[in-house]
Design goal:
With 180 residues, the protein is α/β, with parallel strands linked by helices. It has one domain: 4-Layer Sandwich (Purple Acid Phosphatase, chain A, domain 2). 16% of the residues lie in helices and 31% in strands. The strands form 2 sheets. It has a 6-stranded mixed β-sheet, with helices on one face. Strands 4-5-6-8-7 form a 5-stranded mixed β-sheet, with no helix packed on it.
């Protein structure tokens, strides 16, 4: 199984189009969205091609392939237009004998880990800064952001295939990689 991860779209149809093109080219089985899908947030400027309605339509066209969690910018009204579940603070996926704890990162993160077993992973966004590391026996992965990268990092997405998590730039270059 090949999983495609994005986070922090913040309503940008421009960056989402790029990410969905990559999702199709990579021939991934599922699209995992780790929050902050439609709203740009009070701390961010308007992103390039800010169009939450178009973003909603693009995401809904992939609804049967999406696993999503709520970010700190999601609201109940978003769930009224999004055609897949998106209001949970986390989701758990079993992958190759380990738990992947999927969350946005504003509640659970490296400083507030959920109960995980050795070899499990927490995968999130929120800070807009990519991370791929092991803390004690837990994998900590942050995709960064496809729309608003911070700390001079590139626009990124993630791919999980055959126990390798790769964070890539939207241009397809490997930015970080970790073996689970």
């Amino acid at each position: 199984m090949k999983l495609f991860f994005i986070s922090d779209i913040h309503g940008s149809s421009y960056y989402l189009k790029k990410a969905l093109d990559i999702f199709e080219k990579e021939q991934c089985n599922y699209l995992v969205i780790l929050g902050d899908q439609l709203y740009h947030g009070a701390r961010n400027p308007l992103p390039k091609d800010y169009n939450p309605k178009e973003v909603t339509e693009m995401l809904n066209s992939h609804k049967d392939k999406i696993i999503a969690v709520r970010g700190n910018c999601e609201s109940e009204v978003d769930q009224m237009v999004i055609k897949y579940p998106t209001m949970s603070d986390y989701s758990i996926v079993l992958y190759e004998g380990r738990r992947l704890f999927l969350t946005h990162g504003h509640i659970y993160n490296r400083d507030n880990l959920p109960n995980l077993s050795s070899g499990d992973a927490i995968i999130h966004g929120h800070t807009h800064v990519p991370v791929a590391e092991k803390q004690d026996s837990i994998f900590i992965i942050n995709l960064g952001s496809i729309t608003f990268p911070k700390e001079n990092t590139p626009h990124c997405y993630g791919i999980l295939e055959k126990n390798t998590f790769t964070i890539k730039t939207l241009e397809g270059e490997v930015y970080k990689e970790i073996e689970l």
